């Protein structure tokens, strides 16, 4: 299944999300039902999903219920929740050290150190959401590296995890979830998509750039497969963080790219090495947008496989 990602959404949804973003809040009433994956299904998925094997299922479910059972007794199933707490719960946190119940962090905190390929990265706390400046025609908001990080970000560092509701790719509940209609879906692995339409963190505000400075990749952290954004090059404090959405996104949404590789709105070019179906198709000069193969095929369950060369 081709992973997709786009983020339109109505203004109301965006506003609500912005208000809540980064915190664990009650689900809107219409989501407090078994609208999506129910608990038995979730259990079944956990059983069948080897990537979660390092975790003791009972403990995980207990934890899950403790923090994410709503007033009606339904466990919020698919999960922001899972993305928030699974795997991060046993990890050292940059704010509260090894105390996952610390007053600052708590279980909903994303400011946690995590391990990726033997290196430590920091989730969150690095970036902030800002309204895009008027001269950029990119609508809405974008994600920027915080100004108070004079050292900036080094190539290879992770800036955060893509968080949202986990939606199974197939199964009996498939007809019950609305991810198919969502424009906020990233693929995580063979089992789930991550839908940040209603729930997520600031990474949902990462805009596209044809020469992106981040790549989204699927990595295993603490036994849990996640989608994380990694810096392709050194990034200066205050710089906007961008990722290549891939051509599918623009084909699907019919949107044009306003990034500054071209002075005019353009259709993003394919990554280097990709067969071009129709060379006459409108491209306004971005014929070198090959430094960051952030196409979705790059971060399937097999992990990133594209050209990771630094960006200029
Ligand atoms: C993931 S959201 C990014 C955050 C978005 N700016 C917001 O405020 O919600 C993706 C949407 O942002 C806009 N966008 C992101 N990058 C863009 C780009 N390079 N050119 C034009 N629009 C872009 C498009 O409307 C797209 O559907």
Q: Keywords for this structure?
A:
312 residues; alpha+beta; binds S-adenosylmethionine
How would you characterize the overall build of this protein?
It is a single chain. The protein is α+β, with helices and mostly antiparallel strands and about 300 residues long. The protein has a domain at about 10-25 and about 80-85 and about 115-270 and about 280-300: Beta Complex (Beta-clip-like), CATH 2.170.270.10. The chain contains 5 helices and 12 strands. The protein has helices at about 10-20, 40-50, 55-70, 80-85, 245-255; strands spanning about 115, 120, 125-130, 140-145, 160, 165-170, 185, 190-195, 205-210, 215-220, 225-230, 240-245. The strands form 4 sheets. A 4-stranded mixed sheet has the order 3-4-12-9, with no helix packed on it. A hairpin with a 2-residue loop joins strand 1 and strand 2. The chain starts with 10 loop residues before the first helix and ends in a 59-residue tail after the last helix. Residues about 1-45, about 50-125, about 170-180 and about 275-310 have low confidence and may be disordered. The structure holds S-adenosylmethionine.
């Amino acid at each position: 299944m081709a992973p997709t990602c786009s983020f339109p959404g109505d203004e109301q949804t965006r506003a609500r999300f912005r208000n809540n973003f980064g915190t664990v809040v009650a689900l809107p009433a219409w989501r407090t039902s078994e609208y999506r994956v129910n608990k038995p299904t979730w259990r079944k998925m956990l059983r069948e999903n080897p990537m979660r094997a390092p975790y003791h299922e009972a403990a995980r479910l207990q934890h899950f219920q403790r923090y994410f059972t709503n007033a009606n007794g339904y466990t919020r199933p698919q999960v922001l929740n899972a993305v928030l707490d699974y795997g991060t719960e046993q990890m050292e946190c940059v704010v509260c050290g090894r105390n996952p119940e610390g007053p600052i962090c708590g279980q909903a905190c994303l400011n946690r150190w995590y391990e990726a390929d033997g290196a430590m990265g920091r989730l969150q706390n690095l970036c902030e959401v800002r309204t895009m400046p008027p001269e950029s025609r990119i609508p809405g908001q974008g994600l920027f590296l915080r100004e108070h990080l004079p050292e900036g970000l080094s190539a290879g560092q992770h800036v955060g995890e893509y968080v949202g509701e986990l939606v199974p790719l197939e199964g009996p509940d498939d007809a019950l979830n609305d991810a198919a209609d969502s424009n906020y879906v990233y693929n995580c692995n063979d089992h789930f998509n991550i839908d940040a339409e209603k729930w997520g963190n600031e990474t949902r505000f990462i805009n596209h750039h044809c020469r992106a400075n981040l790549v989204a990749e699927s990595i295993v952290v603490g036994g849990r497969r996640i989608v994380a954004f990694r810096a392709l090059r050194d990034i200066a404090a205050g710089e906007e963080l961008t990722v290549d959405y891939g051509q599918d996104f623009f084909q699907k949404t019919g949107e044009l790219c306003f990034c500054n590789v071209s002075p005019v709105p353009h259709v993003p070019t394919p990554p280097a090495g990709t067969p071009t179906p129709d060379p006459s198709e409108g491209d306004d000069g971005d014929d070198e947008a090959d430094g960051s193969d952030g196409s979705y095929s790059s971060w399937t369950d097999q992990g990133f496989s594209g050209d990771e060369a630094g960006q200029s």
